[in-house]
Every structure is written in C-alpha cells, then in structure tokens.
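[Automated response] Your request has been received and processed.

Submitted sequence:
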Amino acid sequence: MPFVNIRIVKEVIAADPAGKKAAIAAQVTAAITGATGLTSNDVWVVFEEVNARDWFVGETDVETRRSKG
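Generated structure:
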C-alpha cells in the first residue's frame, strides 16, 4: 500500500487548503494507480503543513526568500 507524505508550505495553500489538498491528492493518487494498477483505496496521502518561516533553503527561511522577490 503506497503511503505518500507531502510536506508543503502552509502559505502556498492558504487560499483554499481543503480544495488544494484534495486536488493534489487526486493527482498523486491518479499517478500511482496509473503506474501500478492499484485502486485509489490502496493509496494513502498525508499532508504536513509547515510555516514559511520554519522551512529553510540553505540558511534562509522561505518567508524571507519570498519577501526579497
């Protein structure tokens, strides 16, 4: 049973978290079922939301990187 853990910056989906998570989960599930022949009930997708200020690329957090353009 595939288990997909998606970590995403919370602010990316802030406008419509439920809708965006559902769309992402549907597309990820479709990719896995298409490649494996499993059913959608066999694919588990979990989201972990991380604040932009808590996600770093190198030494700089994403919030700062985005504010600089």
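Summary generated for your ticket: The two ends are 40 Å apart (CA to CA). Helices lie at 17-36, 62-67.
If you did not submit this request, please reply to this message.
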